[in-house]
Amino acid sequence: MSDRGSDRGSERGRVSKAKIQRWQDGESVRAWDRLVVEEPMEIRVGGEAFAVTMRTPGHDFELALGFALSEGLVDDPKSVETIRYCAGEDPETGLNTYNVVDLQLRGPVLVPTDLKRHVSTTSSCGICGTASLEAVRKQCAGVHDDPLQVTAAWLATLPTALRDAQEVFARTGGLHAAGLFSADGRLQCLREDVGRHNAVDKVVGWAATQGLLPLREHVLMVSGRVAFEIAQKALIAGIPLVAAVSAPSSLAVDLARESGMTLIGFLREGRMNVYSGEHRITA
Prior knowledge:
alpha/beta
């Protein structure tokens, strides 16, 4: 796979400023606050509109590739020949907004019927309602045989490691993050975005560009909660352990148990809940 041009989204500002009225101890002052940038990105396949997602600019090609993989459009990164920006123009300036990305695939690809109707997505919920347990069963065999073993003590360090690596969150407080850790404890990739699912797609896209899929013996740590689509994207990428600082949904737990994935919630302050796959955790 080759890119035409560079991922300009990685170079653009992800933080903006806004003038606010700040109240404290019964008094107000005028001040500036930093905000996370949120902009729409249209994903096209062979020039045809496929989906629109709200995201934080940056690592846009990884997001598009990860989205295509985790949503089942392609099952092999090599199926994508090129990724490039299209001329999405600002109506006032006429300049490229870098908010339209096109995937050119090798050979004809039939877009699954259950994906065709998903023209618009949001940063908060992902492709709500597109997936089911049955659909994921057809897409991957699970991670039952993954030999990953980690200690509870090491897992307890992940929330801090994730937070320390979040550069934009430290300035705004308004971003989710997904961090990919190797079995030896190294943080291999961290991506931030206004959307939890976008951050995961960016990580998966990065792993695809590095030729690392499937991600056997890896750990995915996410901020916030684990809804079904987060567990789904991790499973399709071959990740055997997903941990989060907040709660999983019931469907995420069902998927983890059926697929052999280790799923951990409320990983913070030296405690955690293990919802499935406890055999991978040692004292």
